[in-house]
Amino acid sequence: MPGFEMFGEEEKQSVMDVVNTGVLFRYGFDAARKETWKAKTFEKEFAKYISSKYCLLVSSGTAALSTALAACGVGCGDEVIVPPFTFVATIEGVISAGAIPVFAEIDDTLCIDPDKLENYITEKTKGILPVHMCGSMARIDRIRQIADKHNIMLMEDACQATGAHLNGKYAGTWGIVGCFSFDSVKTITCGEGGCVVTDDENIYKRADAFHDHGHDHMGNDRGKEGHEFLGVNYRISELNAAVGLAQLAKLNRIIETQRRNHAQIASVINEFPEIRLRTVPDPSGDSCTFINFLMPDENTARKTASALAGAGADGSFYWYDNNWHYIRNWHHIKNMRTAMPAPQMHLDNMRDYTGLNLPQSDDIVSRTISMQIKLSWTQTEIEKRCDTIYNVLKGIFKS
Predict the structure, then answer these.
(1) Most CB atoms closer than 10 Å: which of 66, 154, 257, 298?
(2) CA 89 to chain centre
(3) pLDDT at 342 > cutoff 60
């Protein structure tokens, strides 16, 4: 991780295919583009890869979340259950839809805890939006059972888990809709981009229209297309789609490399019985973008994170202090402030998150350290990193 570590001639050629036509817009200009349709081809190939009926490319993972929520009819006053550990865009999407985020505890998968999930369901719950964090799956089979039991929509944020699966079923395909990100540091990248996947034709059509100003995309003349409802501009360009299409062809190789590198580092961490690797519901389906491990307590986690950084183990994250991935430091969300005056009136009526109490999540995240798994490491570099990690952990636990 990320895909740009395998950026090469394939991406350059795919972009030049677009440049040579002079058509950067994903719709229309059929004759000029000479059968070069990068966005359409990406959508077809990605849907095939994860076994989804429909895929819609958009401009970012954030745009995918907003588009999916709109297509599912999530709106003002609806409650959507979310984890407190995610990239902040998950929460921004819910709030932008006019809905109310309801934060639920996570477990040691680093995702929503299905054992606690029903505690957060009310008569206003419109959806459950689990996030497959750091490349691995939530207990999505259990979460789907609960969603079905209560007749609640299950919507997946798989932005960090492209290519991950549970029992052979891919992240993003367990719910009514799934969202992916292809930004510059994701498993595969478009530079900027994302997508929505679904098996529901009606949701696909609504998403397709919403992301392009309400156009129904019927026929080849945009001036004569219908508009059932208002939309926005979340379109992706052919240039971004071209990069993503070349990257998609490398996805299996990327995941294989991540898994191989992950296994070598895991073998070192497993030498220390005081440390637990995160729980992965299906190890064979882990995309292995990160290796995540839980220390015995917060103090040891802080000491270890500092020691790893001092030893040059770059790409190590202590999420508990992170400004963008854990609610503890989301002061702008806790205080519900936006630059837009009209939405502020809605936010003023939002629930108070300043006193939010999630002791289980705090305990787990405060003890968790994550290490990014890089694709570009040579065997010598991996061995050096493993030695560095071992020496740091030996100093923590065996001094």
Answers:
(1) 66
(2) 9
(3) no
| Domain containing residue 164: CATH number | 3.40.640.10
Q: What is the average per-residue pLDDT within 161-182?
A: 98
Note the pLDDT tens digit of each residue in 240-272. Answer: 999 999 999 999 999 999 999 999 999 999 999
Average pLDDT of span 269-289: 97
Residues 111 and 202 in one domain: yes
CATH number of the domain residue 359 falls in: 3.90.1150.10
Looking at 218, 251, 284, the residue that finishes a domain is 251
Residue 377's domain comprises 253-397
Q: Is the pTM of this model over 0.85?
A: yes
Catalytic center residues? 186
Residue 72 in contact with residue 155, Cβ under 8 Å?
yes
Same domain, 290 and 360: yes
Instruction: Domain count for the chain, please give it.
Output: 2
Cα distances from 196 to residues 9, 104, 190, in angstroms, run: 28, 24, 15
* Average pLDDT across the chain, whole number: 94
| Greatest Cα pair distance in the chain | 74
Distances (CA, A) of 279 to 154, 291, 313, 376: 22, 11, 23, 26
Spatial neighbors of 394 by CB under 8 A, at least 6 apart, are none
Same domain, 66 and 172: yes
